[in-house]
Design goal:
By secondary structure, this protein is mainly α. Helix content is about 50%, strand content about 10%. The strands form 2 sheets. Strands 1-2 form a two-stranded antiparallel sheet. The chain has a two-stranded antiparallel ribbon with strand order 3-4. It is globular.
Amino acid sequence: MTVAESAAVEFRIDRRSGVATYLQIVQQTKQALRLGVLRPGDRLPTAREVVEATAINPNTVLKAYRELEREGLVEARRGLGTFVRRTLGGAVEASASDSPLRTELADWARRARSAGLEKDDVSALFTAVINRTYKGDQDR
């Protein structure tokens, strides 16, 4: 796993995940937007910075940034870099350290760990519950 850092975001590339590298960058950027780690006006790391930190192909970074731009989340400013245009969802409030939802989720995660569940087990369980809870939302 390798890391690229900017003032507000760090990319972790898992070469064994089976997820295309550019999609990992897109997904991690979206997560940072949802959690308020990235805010409008923030600059993403340059392609060169990401390449130096992660040893991935510069075209991969550019492909990810183009996808984010196509979705209207970021904008490239020639000679300046790529900047966040907007955030995603309402998770910023829910992710605040004093949020009741975050506190409940953290308590649940600690109980799951105490019960012997590994991180991947917890992730699979959480994903299954989320998928069941939000099933049908795609049809709306």
